[in-house]
Amino acid sequence: MREVSVIGVGITKFGELWDKSLRQLGLETGLAAIKDAGITSKDIDALYIGNMAAGSTLQQEHVSALMADYCGLAAQNIPATRVEAASASGGLAIRQAYMAIAGGFIDIAVVGGAEKMTDVSDSESSYTVSMGSDEQWESKAGATFASLHAMIAQSHMHEYGTTREEMSAVSEKNHYHASMNPMAQFPFAISTEAVSNSGMVSSPLRMLDCAPNSDGAAAIVLCATEKAKKYKKKAVKIIGSGQASDTLSLHHRKKLNQMPAIKIAAKRAFKSCGKKPSDLDLVEIHDNFTISEIIALEEIGIFKRGKAASRILKGDTKLGGKIPVNTSGGLKARGHAPGATGIAQIIELVQQLRGEAGERQVKGAKIGMAENHGGTAATAVVHILEGE
Amino acid sequence: MNGIVSYGAYVPTHKIETGEIASVWGADGSAWAKNLNVYSKSVPGPDEDVITIAVEATRQAMKRANLNGDHIGAIYTGSESHPYAVKPTSTIVAEAIGATPNLTAADFEFACKAGTAAIQTCLGMVGDRQIENGIAIGVDTSQGAPGDALEYSASAGGGALVIGDKNIIAKINHTTSYTTDTPDFWRREGQKYPRHGGRFTGKPAFFKHVVSCGMMMMQKAGTEAKDYDYVVTHQPNGKFPIRAAKTLGFTNEQFETGLLTPRIGNTYSGAVFLGLSAILDIAKPGDRILAVAYGSGAGSDAFDITVTDEIAKIDRSETVESMISRMKIINYATYAKYRGKLNMGATK
Amino acid sequence: MSVPRFWRELDTRYNLIGSYCKITKTYHYPRRSFNPEAGRESIDSMKDYQFKGTGEVVSSTVVHQAQTGYEMFGPYCIAIIKLDEGPKITTQIVDCEPEHVKPGMKVKSVFRKLGEDSESGILHYGTKFILNEPEEAINSNDEDISNIEV
Q1: What chains are in contact with A, requiring at least 3 Cβ pairs below 8 Å?
Q2: Which long-range contacts (CB under 8 A, 24 or more apart) does C38-44 make?
Q3: In terms of residue numbers, what domain contains A370?
């Protein structure tokens, strides 16, 4: 197996990008990533696209060929593959490219993720997001995506005494980080009180516990490490990768307040590089809801079960704290464009590990992890990256 | 001997008070309540309709007497608010009680007496040995146009009777009908709300048919009012049935058990079924009941019924009274939302 | 939901038909032809089973931003309940104050409309749940009918 490095990154600002189409977003980030890597289109062996919902939001499937075409790669008949696993689509696309390069099939791949959530009404985009859970036996029964996470939160609060204030601290911290990220959808700080007093969505989850449904795109260039020196001085290595799945519906899980797919994906990623939670300098977590970040940190093993929430409130996961989490602002404040989210997480790690994160730089960051999941964590994908 | 093998009833959990409706239209609520003798009416939830009420009432009837779908040879549902204009309510009921596929089914419409016409059909089929048991259902979720007099009374509810010739809890001794062409109340195809002839719905319509049919029934049975323990008639409001019963020679004690409209409103096709269910909830062997339905357009069906010893063998723990006592008051805004009276606009 | 897609699962929704695995002696809802715990041997050992329709609340939430098609209920209660036979399902708990629903409360099934394709489309019916012990009725308005003038 060969080592794989990230040699280029490109990202749009996430948010309501009214004047940009899916293909335009894909092109912009793809070009930016290629430019950052210092390669030309002729160097690219394959294209991988993470996209969750173009079929339901844009009535457009076959997004792989669409992107290859609009990025100018159709002329060279490039292999293009779309990967879909709800909000984990981006992370999973990276893993597919990673495996193809590590396995020696190709040397260089561009992995792009793009999503347009604002070309449909709010109710349609919300329904689209809930398609990541069991449409027949959850969504059609009246459960929203937020309501499923609300029951996860109720269960966590009931068993571990997790509080309103602790959940608010997740959002407050992520907004604080986003205030230092010019590409964030919400680049401003908010107070824990503002989170605790925001409108109720599905008890106990309030508006500011929930990540937005954003437009956005992100792209990276992966290269076999042995060939990376040729293009980029500061390559960042992917040293670990893990993936796991679980029952599609929440009600089929043994415990509602756990997300075992995350635990197993992280365990596999740690095992693949011989690292452990205490080796991590920073983490990007899939905080689609505040409760998800709390549980994911417990599943990964960064904090003991039932202890993450109080540590977050204490400031341990803030920039300058013991283990900074979501320095990008996370899904909550950087924004959440499902297919692009998993790739945006990797871009944040790359920028941090290159030492190019500016105001929000984690000092001396060497090893970072990204955790990306789909649905109520029926798919989880975890990557560990190491800077030079 | 043919008659009732079991019975089931259903009244929705929500109700709205007459005064609340009147306050929306600037009307005198206490006067309306007193004039109609209707103080509150049931309101179906957003997920309730004739089909769900028919299923709940029928399931109760099946459970009461430990019946299963194999026992049922026919299902007929009478209603003027079937959710589908084309596609039967009765097939959905049949599926939901596990009676498919060896049965016959159809939906009936005759304003508020469609359900009692279904009873007569079942009696005929059982008597002719075409089926072992048939189910007759009377249910409505009727609506009055906002602000119309009907809005104070039009409500939701219904009942189901299993008709057969074995293990019968109440024998149907006789039945008779009285039918004319009297256009007192109607709803045209495609119209959301029915229209009515105002005071014309009284003397030439309701009273003429109910009283004539009741008298014909007693003549046929060789009975007088004093021979009955209970009487129940159709009850479009709380006053008409009392006046009709008194005209036929009945007293408060005989009609008060089956008179539910003052508390739950006019359940249309469900009215006689619910009134009869309330009587069967407390009836003793040997009790005699006169039931007279009325449907606009117009006609009456009457039934002379005698309760048997078998009534002690069925489960009567769930009663109409217990359902009514569970009802919770909602305001007009919630009522308007639940009943689809809000114009939601087009979203697509 | 298209007509065949709804029709195919009709008895599962109307009558809570699931499966019983003769190998592990466990119950499954909705119906499945394969029990992951028993492996391929279970393919011929699964038989239809009608659930009693009783169970208890495991977790619940009051939904203020309604799911598409549930706007008329808002706010409403969504819960994960555990059926007495074992399996858990996600369901709306109706006819109650949604915030009164708590873990451990007993529930029973009712037949309700689940939704519709469109104003002119097919209607979807199925099972929802209510609390076993209804909350106290707020009040009643009994009148003495013997005083009514006719």
Answers
A1: C
A2: none
A3: 131-211+239-386
